[in-house]
Amino acid sequence: MQRLKSFSAQSIPILGTGLAFWGYEGGLVWLGVPLAFLLEAALRLPRRAEFSNRDFIRISDLCAVLLVGMVALLVVTLPMREAALTIFQLLPLPLYPLMLAQAVSVQGKVPMGTVVWSARNLKPGEAFRGVDITYPFLALCLLCGSLSNHREGGYYLGFAAVGAIALWRFRAREAARFAWAGMFLAALLAGFMGYRCLEDLQAWLERVTADWYYEYLSRDTDPFKAITAIGEIGELHLSNRPVLRVQPLSKRLGPLLLRQATYDTFHSGSWVATQAGFAEVEAGSAPGSWVLSPVAEGPLSLRVLLGLRKDRGLLPLPGDSSSLSDLQAGKVKENRLGTVMAEEAPGLLCFFVRQGARGSDGPPTPTDLIVPENEEQTFSALADDLGLSRVPETEAVRRVKDYFTKNFSYSLKLSGGNDGNTPLARFLLASRQGHCELFATATVLLLREAGIHARYATGYLASEPSGVKNWLVVRERHSHAWARVFVNGSWTDADTTPPGWVAEEDEGVGVFAQARDILSRFWFRFTLFRSGLRTEELFPYAAGVVLLLAGFLFFRIFRRRWVPEKRTRREDAGDCAARPGIDSEFFRVLARWQEEQGPRSAGETPAGYLRRAEKQAGRPLDERLLAALQLHYRYRFDPRGLDSASRARLSRLVAEILGEAPGNSGGDDFRGRESEPQERILQKDP
Amino acid sequence: MKRVSYLILSAFYRLYLSAGRRLSTPGLFLAVLLAVFALAGSDTRRTAAFQAFSFLFFLLAFSICFSIFFRGRFSISRRMGRTAVVGEPFPYDIVVENGSGRRAKGLLVRERYAAPAPSRESFFSAPSPRGGSFLSRRLGFYSFYALAAAGLGFRQKPEPVPELAPGASAAVRSSLVPVRRGRLRLSSISVLRPDPLGLAYGARHVEAPADVLVLPKTYPVKSLPLAGRRRHQAGGVALAGSVGDSQEFCGLRDYRPGDPLRHIHWRSFAKTGKPVVKEFCEEFFVRHALVLDTFGGDRSPALFEEAVSVAASFARAGVSGESLLDLMFVGTEAFRFTFGRGLGAAEQALSVLACVSPCRERPFSDLRSTVMAALPVLSGVLLVLLSWDDERRSFCRALAAKGVPILVLVVTPDSQENAPEESTPYRVVRIPVGQARQALASL
Fold it and tell me: Which of A374, B68, B257, B323 would give a disulfide with B286, using CB separation of 3.0 to 4.6 Å?
């Protein structure tokens, strides 16, 4: 430690203020305020510590380890979105040791090597190049404080207050103080109005773009309207991106239809849900459980893992779902058509589905029998041909299914045209091929023509094994449409699309899909791992992470001891080149003298010290000692250095003086002789 | 990828230069913060960073607006030397005269940077420097940084100007640090007035062209560490200038027409009856060659600069004695400059070295033939080489075979690579980049 001659600590505690402000904004006052006090106290210490470049590098390594540890812990324990936000909010914490080191260091800066990787190792003789991280650290505190998103205006005023302190230091000295204050206040007011305008601007932009987006781009499921591709020309392509994963818990064979939305009115190529306002679903007795249908329940049948783009979204569920459990959402809503929506939900949902005797779809209404006028003639004739009105409902459904399976094929090519027929009529009478929307729409209208209540449902078909236990992966291209028909007093699914459609969809998979699948599978396993963990189960993993990081830190700190001998020797040689003669044996003699005659004063030369010691001892020095001192000086300060013979002589003399050489009479009798070199060297120091 | 990288880097560099002329260091820091807060606050519903963005934006906007209204008339001149040393502060005076009718206070003054972004050709031909991450090397970040720093030519902090009454003038002691060798052209000087917040500068630029020759860095060297010998120099005493062996009596011979009368040995003339003249020894000097390897220097600028510095150190030390020093290198052609004994001073040798550039077009054999041609009059050769390959080894062996004492200094990237073998009949010293001072001190 080195005592400072004058105390020059910053008079205004700007760093402490910034850190305390960060703690206040993040709800961590208990942490921010003590850290701020500690930092300010360190800045005001009358003493400073001498850190070498390597010390600083070790401290920065410690910061890196803390950061990695913090990231690992938060990613494992928190939902991903929350974890990312918390990591950014807590960023000043892992960097705090480096800031503290700068505050207590003599240099008042941290070396470039802590910021730039390539500058970590100083070359021999290279000067310390430092960078002051005070203001970057302050800016980081202010930035991280903003992530807490307090909207009451406290952040703005706090930021301005800390900014005022910082800016006051950089003001133009000759400028009038009122000019500074005037400009600052003007910026404060303009900034306040500016940020209010920014809020309004974003709201306006969102309003303008939302309509456009949903009209033309969005493929998110709209619970009230489904715009189909019926009547369009071209080819349908959907992404290979996994949308959700499901795990059937019961022994159930065959693909699984997961309904996301149901519609009841068809008009001009679009399905619309009428009178389909959402109502909150009653929460169950257990946390995270929601009751969809108050009927007798069976066992848990399905586990669903679903990622939401926002904090709300429609849930893909089997048509006969009766309750949900472990669903971490603030609200669950449902409309009369059985469409279920989760609100105030995290980005990733993992929940269980219990299926019952029947689903939660509302009772049939006259709307479920309406066939558009322009389609009436086509469907009426076809229904008569199939004799649908003359057979029971179940038989009618079976006939429709057989009809489509035998006479139609699946195609992603959209064959529009202008032959005067509607797209559905063209599909039924001419092309006899199409995609699932056509089959589902035709089925619904055909059954309605036969007097059977039917609705149009969209969702996904889960059939592809994911490679992880018995989980199924559902991709965007597995999105599907089918009919919901009311037979025998309950709603059931009627999927009339020819069964080969999944294979046809799989043909268009890209080359890189498999690689992406592997990554997706890793992410899925990690998600499963996270969602299945309870807090007490986390401790072994946390301990493992901490041990791993501690091991890495240990390696970083002590790795120089493990380098090969050759390298060590070279580094030693480098030190010797930087400070010639530093390996002189004469230092051992000096050490021996200091043990006996007391320490050498700071700045006292060896010759001066020996002269003083000679007076203290009261007898002249040995000429061997003086000869060794002369050689030592030459070795240390002569640009030509010592030749090998002189160097060996120095070693020999030191060994004799210390009594290490064979045949020497001892280490203490080197005093008491006089010689000419002694006089010469003691009179004049180099 | 490097093309895109160049476009982005040059755009950022232009932005930085433009902002650097207008903004102070705190202002630049705030501008960077503004960008960061803009990014963090892009969604006003998620964070409160947009509030800070708005405040910072108006702070900078008001500061810049204030700085626009800076008016003033100034006359400026410099009082400076002609040569500077790369990396060393070069102090000089800037004389500022207030030509306006108002008092001028709170002003700063500094040289105006006139640095274009590194050209596309120089960026793509620049070597990939060592250090940094793989990605930064691939993107050419460090190459661009080095080229941009060299293009700036110097570093300088603004210096405060004392308060000036109308018509008054004051000399401001300023200092700039050249960052590269060669001719440094200073075009104009900026008089700056910071705004009250201290974030932006209002600037008036005054044309004041000046040239400074930036000499290479030198290290302390006692003398040329060569065991030389004296050789006859064909130039004779006329070339020698002042001192030497020109008056040393050597013998007598018969008079030949044209011999000066003051060389007649009158006693012998009297004895023999025919004119006899005194004969003096020919001019014998120590003449060393300092050979600088310029081949491959474009691939490693740091290596080349260190080699030039090493050569400059010996040039400065070698010219001061009574020996001659031939500086040889190959640029656009093979050059040989002779210094010492009145032919040229150390400053001239350093001036030549200040303008040396790496050789790209010519082969190494040009240097070899130049040195071999001069070998009969040389007493010793000191070679400063950039690498230690077979071609250079063969060259050194050929020199040693002629019986000329040679010393080879090989500048290496670091202490591990290109380690020369020790079993040569001449001395080979390895000088790692950045450690020349220690290496030369131990010679």
Answer: B323
